[in-house]
């Protein structure tokens, strides 16, 4: 069997990449070691930038239907509420950023929505397929599986988590540090005796705590606990009940069901490389982190979104293979910054809010970025392209789909959608928007646009309509 792209791992990273490739007509297969999708709530925050990505991929409404806003945190001591505060600093929405509040969605719900969208587009996931090794040559990669079968692909993407078997098979190192020496526990539970309008926090001695957060779209609470150093977390139902009884006024019998549980020790680590030949690392296979601030799942989705259009450009649109080198160039620095941010939030050095919504991330230093104006305005090449309205057309609607978009000039070039003007909020100039919603090129006029596309080896799609 031969496929264009083999994606190892059916988590948010692998499913997002599968969706992006499916809509581009790329023959991709997602394989998952387990026999089902991940069953827990672990990564529950969907940041505003990721909401824009999901809007583009056609699944934001499905995500919003099973999610909701973050509730305020309320603190309990001795069975009494002693305080309440929002989880995030509020950011006012404006025309350029229609989504500014994170959504809370249990990870298993997010993955269900991603899986449904992938299958709707004709994509496939093969469950119970565990990779054991791979070999690559100049033309492709041969992956070996535990059942003795093999599969050949032109490219492989490792999206198989922090203990990535593919990363280990490649011999790629992962340097990092311990963020917190204490053991942490997370679980999905049913609990009696608490309202579902607050994230309930129960502080303990020596900076330990237990939290119970209602999960929208479910009847569950997510339990989070920081335990004393040297403690071995007990993930059984009885262990969870004892923990609730020790930290709260509820008593252990308030826990009526344990759906899922896991333990971890927060660590920040970054893979030495994101690409080895025809194999790419994405998501937790490339970066592991503290869950504080809700950055990990979102950064992983951004990895997939960055890589998807580039693989599509090379495999379907005739772009130069060297374009794929820019995946590591662009995403590894962003992942490094995310690790610093998550660690800062975990240690109380950075507030959740403007710093964590991911709307300010960009690629100004990328070799794909060209800013040719003598006096750039508020929006520069490499920046996220803000929303806005041009002649009654909303920009996020115009950007939706696997095409490039030109603002401020008309063009007849295949694969480009054009609008004759850019919003005043962008400042003067002409802007070429990449398929992933970032400004690739900006100029005083459209002169130099074709040279940019030629010089970077890019060829916007000509074999399908721009609205595909």
From TrEMBL:
Entry keywords, A to Z: FAD, Flavoprotein, Monooxygenase, Oxidoreductase
Gene Ontology terms, MF aspect: FAD binding; oxidoreductase activity, acting on paired donors, with incorporation or reduction of molecular oxygen, NAD(P)H as one donor, and incorporation of one atom of oxygen
Oxidoreductase found in the keyword field: yes
Coiled coil: none
Domain FAD-binding: residue ranges: 3-341
Cofactor(s) needed by this chain: FAD
PANTHER family reported for this sequence: BINDING MONOOXYGENASE, PUTATIVE (JCVI)-RELATED, TRK SYSTEM POTASSIUM UPTAKE PROTEIN
Protein name stated in the entry: Pentachlorophenol monooxygenase
Organism: Streptomyces broussonetiae
